[in-house]
Task: structure prediction
Amino acid sequence: MNYLQKRPNIVCIGGGTGLPTILSGLVGHAELTAIVTVTDDGGSSGYLRQAFNMPPPGDIRNALVAMAQPNSPLSALCQYRFPQTSFFSGHPLGNLMLTGLMQMTNDFAQAVENLSQLMGIRGQVLPASTELIHLKAELTDGSTVHGECHIRQARKKIKQLTLIPDEPIPLPQALSTIHAADLIVIGPGSLYTSILPNLLIPKIKTALQKTSAPKLFICNIMTEPGETDNFTASDHITTLHKYLSEDFFNYVLVNTGTPDQVMLKRYTNKKQHLVTPNTILNKKEQPYQILTDNLYSSSNFLRHDPAKVCQHVLTILKHRQAGQHYCRLPPLLKKNLPN
Result:
């Protein structure tokens, strides 16, 4: 359902599994741009990054697939992962295609554009930067960890996250799309390894602060082991405010649905827990509007329902276009939320 007569320009920022989920719901409803994190150093992406001195291709590949034409055979081909018994064990074919295109062009952004054209994607996918960016985390025990994988494996609370280099150059198209956007959507995704790596690039952060487009943060449904253990919704926002400003976001979308106990048990066994809305929704004054809904879609995994998120995004745009506020917060939640 498209509420708008003119297709809006929407920029989605993130990575991991959260970004493709949101893209799959919005594609076809907007002029869509994905700005994708490039700090992954594990698995196939990490191997190719090190072997070919290139940005990691995995998150880019997933974003391209999410924005491809329905039932595209090339999408299925990109997601094909070679079996463990093969020479290319564990590598998705799409990662190897991006690597090959990178070798041919010596330009990662051009490689992504070339694969985008081959797939006929509906919108554009942009790496946040084509530099090789590493994550550095100072932990609360005083130790320092380098690299996305090592940060997760440390399983300790993060005190400060920084980038190496500290001022990587963003893709110019990423900045121009932010300036032209009608709405910026950030998240869901791993807070420290999918979302903040994009926002810590100084020129991207500045562009987001200067844009007149409203900014929506979509909070995770489940906690991330080694990153956001025991985090509530307010913990996510407080962490983002530490690196940004308290008036950075205009809207925050939070899940208030509760999956069945069987599904939650599966996640508990992996040391993941439901992100509770808690005091973020009890505050009487904040610079952003809280939007709540039963947002999860469960099959084998708990993910945001793309259609429900799309409905909220388009409703925000509809109300902004009409000069109205949009705040979907059922009154009963204010009484019953835990502190």
Notes: The longest helix spans residues 306-321. The two ends are 36 Å apart (CA to CA). Residues 206 and 332 are 38 Å apart (CA to CA).
